[in-house]
Structure formats: C-alpha cells, structure tokens
C-alpha cells in the first residue's frame, strides 16, 4: 500500500510538470498550427538563465525564476517574429516549421555550449527538507515543483478561458481570418502565444534544474515527453494535455516501480502507440 | 463613402484583380455579380487587406486604406461577413457575437440587445456551439456578429451560399432592413443574381478580375447580357 501510494504521488508530481511542458507544445500547435521541435531547448535555456541569475548574479530563487522565465518569453517572441514568421511566409521554405525550429534548437544548444560550457551545472535545492510520514518520503523540492507546476496550469487555464487576451487566442486558433476581421492583430497573438508557450517550458526548466542538473542537451528527453503528452492528450487540447501529462507521470512512476527504470521510456512510448491505434485524435482531441 | 480606384491585387505573382473601379455611396446597397472564380471573394479580401498584395486606392470617407493593416479595418466602421461564414465553430453563439465587438471599447449592451431582437433564432441558441447550427442559423449569426461592431459599411460575401430558397429570401430581407432601418451601407457579392439585383440599388459585374459592366440594378435586371450571363434566361 505504501509502495503504491509512493508511486502514485511520485507519478502525479512528475505528471504535473509533464503537463506544463505538454501544454506549451499543444498551444503552439493549436494556435500557430506548427510543431516546435525546439521546445525542449527553451526548457534548457530557462534552466541556464535561472542558473545565471541565481548562481552567478546571486539573486534569490524567486526573482531568478521570474527573470529566467521572462527571458525565455522574450527570446521566444523575438525568434517567432524575427525568424519563424518570416521563414513560414516564404514560398521557398515550403511549409516546414519542423526544419526551422530544428535549426533554432541546434542554435540554442550551441549558444548554450559557448556561453556556459559543456560541463553539467548545478543549482541547490530550493529547500533541502525531506518529509517522512507513514513510510512515505518526499523531498520538499518535489513538492515545490508540483505546487509551482499546478499553479502554472491554473494560471494558464484562467488566462485562456477568462481573459480578453485568452479569448483572442481561442478565436485566432479557430479561425485566423475571422479573428483578423474582428480586429484581432493575429500576428501579435502568434508572437505572444509562442513566447508564452516556450516560457512554460522555461518554468519547468527552472524548477527541475536542482533535481536534474543543467547541460546543453537536457532538452532532448523533455522534447519527447512533451510530444507524448501532446499526442496522448489530443493536439491542441489544453485540458487533454493536463490529463495526459498526469497520466504519463503515473504510468512512468508505476512502471519504474514494478519493472525497473529501464522500462520507463518503453512504456511511455507504448502509450503513444496504443493511443494512435485506439484513439488517434487523443483523449480530448476532435475527430476530423 | 467607398471609392476604389485602379485596384490591382495579386496572390504571390499571380494577378487576380485588374484596375478595378467601384464606388459605393452613403446609404446604398451595391451588389457585385460574377461567375465562379471571377474574383469576387478576392475583391472583398483585398478591400480588407487580407491574403492578397494590393496596389491602387481604397478611399473610405476620405481616408486611403491601402496601407491599413487588416485588423484595423473594423475600427473604421467596416465589417465583412465572409464567404462560408467563418464563425468560430467551438465558441458559443454568444461568444461569437461578443467577439464581433472585440475591437469596440464602448459599451455594447444596447447593440447586443438589438442584434438579438433582429435575430430571435440566435437568442434561443446563445449557448450552442456555433459550429453545430444549421447553415441558415450560421448565416444569421455571422451577420449578427458583423453588426456587433456597429459598422457603417457592411460587406457580405455570398450570404445565400448553401441556403434553401426561403432562407435566402429571409437573409435578403434582413439585409434590406439593416440598410433601411439602421442606415448601414451594404456591398453584397452574390451568384444568385436575381435576388441580388432585386435588392440592390446598383450593381457591378466582375469577370476575370475586371469590372465588365455597371449600372442601376433595375436596368441590369433587364439587360440582355446580364440575363444571359447570370440569370440563365
Ligand atoms: N489563396 C489563393 N491563392 C491563389 N489563387 C487564389 C487564391 N484564392 C483564390 N485564388 C484564385 O483567384 C481567382 C478568383 O477567386 P475568387 O475566390 O476571388 O473567386 P470568386 O469570384 O469569389 O468565386 P466563387 O464564386 O467561386 O466564390 C480564382 O482563379 C482562384 O483560383
Ligand atoms: Mg467567392
């Protein structure tokens, strides 16, 4: 029972940040109609910026996270406006967000390597406490991660469902032409949405940095996980990503518990294959 | 009100409109006729500044709109209900209507009430997803949404598309009403030349991206060329 509960809690905690990562990717898909294979690299950039502000500039944790996330938000908007929008507007590039974001990802990894080097960087836990009760152990850091992740998810839901800006995002996602007619500057929506989406990856990067460490290639596995969440949840579905993220976290956690950590990824990706087979549009996706 | 002079438009390098000249006076209903692929929708989009590259003059109440970004158009009092309606399918009727006033900073309660009064059908379906309504209801919603910004100039692209004849008549009755009672100037693109000419004050015939004919709608209705081309007589 304790083992079960421990796995469940671990799963929900990982699931919470998988959801944050997945939402970023799914919103990019839903609004900009493009895939972003550099999502994991913005996660990496967020972690490095956090490291820079907290370890090098010596700022406290919270301002460092805020600055890190804000930094990635700005970089994301700049890249969308400066590179992605232009490249996608050109005939010669065909319609290949895949190639463009792949290039951006490689660029970010190389820049990180030049600035921060190849060696692993670390940041200390926000809080070193480890809680124990009834046989369960839980590092405070993990609880902080889950708390920030869930708070982020709630903030995103409120932004999308309740604000005027969120309305404009939904309208643009559903019909860009009509949204323009309604007076919505859809170019701006594209830019800000892309910035927000990669800022979500940065949130995860900042809060996970103490646990997993930082290096230029840390985005790779995160990219794959984000895809899994997106596909299982249904591309473009925010609610689906939350459910799928938590589901992925729980499945991974239990498979690690019962089959060993070697099987963790196999089982996660089997989830995607099963999904393609039984419900290709994802849990919350719509049939076309 | 609207004066279009020597308007040329292109999709990439392909030209779609050639030196188009169209005038719409205050309070008029003007219709643009044309067969499939004539460039009617392209003309509408070009006036809005969407998709095409454009050259020429689009003068609206004295202001040249040729360099105005598309999303600013609504602030000048111009709206378009596009071909195929383009509602937000996964938003409710209510949300669709409210988005129609997205760019308007003033209080919109009165306008909202007026629109619902004009379209009682919509009032019954406020919380239904727009994408699940019938074609006629969707057209009403699209027109209602366009009216939410209190436009002075309303463009409609094939409002009769895919609708049963009696619904088409309803739609054109509403267009007349909007024009007469609300004083909104209307430009309507139609393939259903018969009803369009009966509704409009003046008409233009667009073929292969050029204006081929223009005149009083009643005269056009009797013109042998128009009868042959658009009325199937
Ligand atoms: N996005 C586009 N890119 C390239 N060519 C286009 C595009 N949209 C329309 N065209 C072409 O421009 C021409 C005019 O099309 P348009 O849609 O304006 O015609 P229309 O008069 O509205 O026709 P319909 O009555 O069928 O709606 C056609 O030859 C069409 O193929
Ligand atoms: Mg058309």
Please characterize this protein's 3D structure:
The complex is a heterodimer of chains A (288) and B (233). Chain A is mostly helical and 288 residues long. Chain A has a domain at 19-218. Helix content of chain A is 75%, strand content 3%. Chain A is built from eleven helices and two strands; from the N terminus they run H-H-H-H-E-E-H-H-H-H-H-H-H. Chain A has helices spanning 2-32, 39-56, 61-89, 97-116, 140-162, 164-174, 176-181, 186-212, 219-233, 238-259, 264-278; strands spanning 130-133, 136-139. Chain A has a two-stranded antiparallel sheet with strand order 1-2. Chain A is globular. In chain A, 51% of the residues are buried. The model of chain A has no long low-confidence stretch (mean pLDDT 92). Chain B is globular, with a radius of gyration of 17 Å. The mean pLDDT of chain B is 94. Chain B has nine helices and ten strands. In chain B, the strands form two sheets. Chain B has a six-stranded mixed sheet, sandwiched between helices. With 233 residues, chain B is an alpha/beta fold. In chain B, helix 2 (93-100) packs parallel to helix 5 (135-147). Chain B has a domain at 1-77 and 185-233: Rossmann fold (3-Layer(aba) Sandwich). Chain B has helices spanning 40-48, 93-100, 109-118, 120-124, 135-147, 165-182, 193-199, 217-222, 224-230; strands at 2-11, 14-24, 29-33, 53-60, 63-64, 78-81, 153-157, 185-190, 202-207, 210-216. Classes of the chains: A mainly alpha (288), B alpha/beta (233). Chains A and B meet through helix 6 and helix 7 of A and helix 2 of B. Magnesium ion (MG) is lined by residues 40-41, 83, 157-158 of chain B.
